[in-house]
């Protein structure tokens, strides 16, 4: 593709994206295709001859869009938001256009140094501990961040796992509310699912019980296990429960165990002073911490930030230097080589998109975005609370509200089935998209606000639609 | 950013990228900055107020570009190429613009189904085994691909590692030429570096010795170890050596051990019939196979393809289904949820860029690109061979040529130091960028051709520059 062709098609793609966001609200949120529809519509064999980019754009409309679930739709309330924004898209486009690969400082110093600087900006923006300064790195996801933290934690136990493999019973501490990526990390690292110890939670708040954690740690150590890491969560996936990090941190300190704090969704809220409490305990206790600008901070996937209070055990665990990667800058020790801070070797210039976002919005703009989401969630929760046909969980400090119809007269299992059926009907309608969870065995609907396109009228329309659908007699 | 602002700034960014590629040859290939220069030039604190995108573009010129090592420069010959191209950039831009997250089929069916289809297209384009059809997935890197393969291989040994953790001595088989990501994977999975067994190579071809592999497997099993996986490489990083996959596969079959074939760099060459030999043994023996369109196939990082002959052990190793991810499509078993095929949970719509590349170039265009790189490498090797002051390795089947000055009169260690000093001077000049390796203890220069912008005149200029610099008297 010549530069002239790139200019021409590039404008078409930019316009297509702008048009897409302008008309997105007219499309069904959840894709209506059936398994195999998209695959069947794509040619079974690759083309022998090349063609103009017009064909890609035409098939994007004809084949791809019907198969897309529109995460940027103003009525997308499922999972957590996966924010994007104009400056993020353009920052990422610059990264693709530069086409550099920043595995080593030497292979593009700006890729490494902007990442360090922007991670430090996030320390300022979120009010994170000073020890995190210079110790931040962008990962693809919170899953990878917790995996890297776990490998560092294993290294810090002083065993020889990196050299000899796992040869002791290591244990990892989570609650029933912790993200499944922690169990996945236990499997990947050779620790094993059975050695993931599930700490009790308070049945009301769903927050981890530090006393039970303490008891488990004591019991396991007495039984000869080597506890590796505790994962506390600020803003769980299910209900945005908040574990008591200061108290958990005290327990970790007492047992000499690594504390990872997973604030994948909620951590970025700390950009607002009124949410700074999400950082409680980090400065005193956190060995590692992660939060995702790609969820609620206007930066498109993938962009997770991971910080470590001490990077040394991570690098001991992950660094291997073959001859073909040796270079003067690495040998000097004066630079960061981010390849040793992650699972893969190669890496994109992801700092560009976060840099673009922070400059475009400024701290003020980021705060306004977080506040808008939290305010809409508060409004929704108040509307639900005012409707006697529904019940809502009191706890909704961020953008997620959990609730359900009361289903007067139905047994608990019947009520759960009715709630799930309601959700399926709503999602199938294409009018909105929401997901569910279970608390104390009972099904709750989850409605997560926080997409940049979502305004009060969309939340209001969603709530009206839910009430209407719940009241409808079903066959 | 409003749609109108996005259109305006989007055009500016597209033009900036087109301009960048038009003027790239005038910039020094290797960044000339010193450690800290870029970081110091970026403000120490994030902005309180937002600003227009003009500031980003201005600082891109002023701060970022001087700190960039230009991987797309026609005189970039280091490592392996990290191709990008217009259609790849635009396909990736579409992915950013759509902003979907394809962890599950249900969260965007097109993201999953286009990936499956495009991976099948690659099976056709490269002439890969029929068993790979429907079993391909895009990973971020070959490192992650081999890690996933290793986890599947551990699962297939029939132990209970996913549940109970690593509780036997598992062994992994590589050669001294295997990529360092295999040892990294052994550390990550809890197998340990010390259980990575290094199989002898032929001192001439540097290819793995199947007889020694057989002996090691027998010895380890007799000593009570559980061999997990053998990694054969087609096109090693150091010199593009090619392991004898058919013979290695026979040994693996005899011992019931998983065979992963890492063709990260060279595998895509099979798009040309004359390179189809790189697939020898795959159909009969490979349990998993990976190659990187992001190296030599015009698709920007990150885009590694991983195929498995049988996906079941991978999914057993990696699948965990919490309540908040349950959905009808997953429960039906009719769809692929790619989250179980990778380390992270979330995933970008990466298939769009590969789809765009294949449609724009067609099979013909992809073949022309591979042939251009291989032809230039052949030409370079012939020029070096004709110069009595240099020696060149005979083996250069792809785009990489390894060579060195003979340095008449210098002892081997002095010659190595002179070769490294030559490389440092060349790289510091900004005229070209190349890296080095060691073979039999001796330093060789590596010159990898294959960037889309590289023409014969650039390779010729590089060779002239190397000869001139090698002949220059140094202090």
Structure explained in plain terms:
- Chains A, B: One of its GO terms (molecular function) is pyridoxal phosphate binding.
- Chains A, B: One of its GO terms (cellular component) is cytoplasm.
- Chains A, B: Its cofactor is pyridoxal 5'-phosphate.
- Chains A, B: It is an enzyme of class 4 (lyase).
- Chains A, B: This is Aromatic-L-amino-acid decarboxylase.
- The structure is a homodimer of 475-residue chains.
- Chain A has 475 residues and is of the alpha/beta class.
- Chain A folds into 2 domains: 1-30 and 69-85 and 362-475, Aspartate Aminotransferase, domain 1, CATH 3.90.1150.170; 101-348, Type I PLP-dependent aspartate aminotransferase-like (Major domain) (Aspartate Aminotransferase, domain 2, 3-Layer(aba) Sandwich).
- Helices cover 44% and strands 12% of the residues of chain A.
- Chain A is built from 17 helices and 11 strands.
- Chain A has a 7-stranded mixed β-sheet, sandwiched between helices. A 4-stranded antiparallel β-sheet of chain A has the order 8-9-11-10.
- In chain A, strand 5, helix 11 and strand 6 (288-291) form a beta-alpha-beta unit.
- Chain A is globular.
- At the A-B interface, helix 1, helix 2, helix 3, helix 4 and helix 5 of A face helix 1, helix 2, helix 3, helix 4 and helix 5 of B.
Major sheet of chain A: order of its strands? 1-7-6-5-4-2-3
By DSSP, the count of extended strands of chain A is 11
CATH architecture of the largest domain in chain A: 3-Layer(aba) Sandwich
What is the number of domains of chain A? 2
Classify the helix fraction of chain A into a percent range: 40-55%
Unreliable stretches of chain A (pLDDT < 50, length at least 5) are none
Computed Rg of chain A: 24 Å
Percent strand of chain A equals 5-15%
Oligomer state equals: homodimer
Most residues in contact, chain pair and counts = A-B, 163 and 162 residues
Shape field of chain A: globular
Structural class of chain A: alpha/beta
Distance between the termini of chain A: 57 Å
CATH superfamily of the largest domain in chain A: Type I PLP-dependent aspartate aminotransferase-like (Major domain)
